[in-house]
Amino acid sequence: MSEYKVVRVHDIPDQGPNFGLRPDQLEVRFLRNDLGSEHCGVTYARYGAGWKRTGGHRHKRQEEVYVLVSGRAQCKVGDDVVDMEPWTAIRIPPGTTRALRAVGDEDAVFVLVGAPNTGPGGGEEVQGFWPE
Question: Which domains does the chain possess?
Answer without folding.
Answer: 12-117 (2.60.120.10)
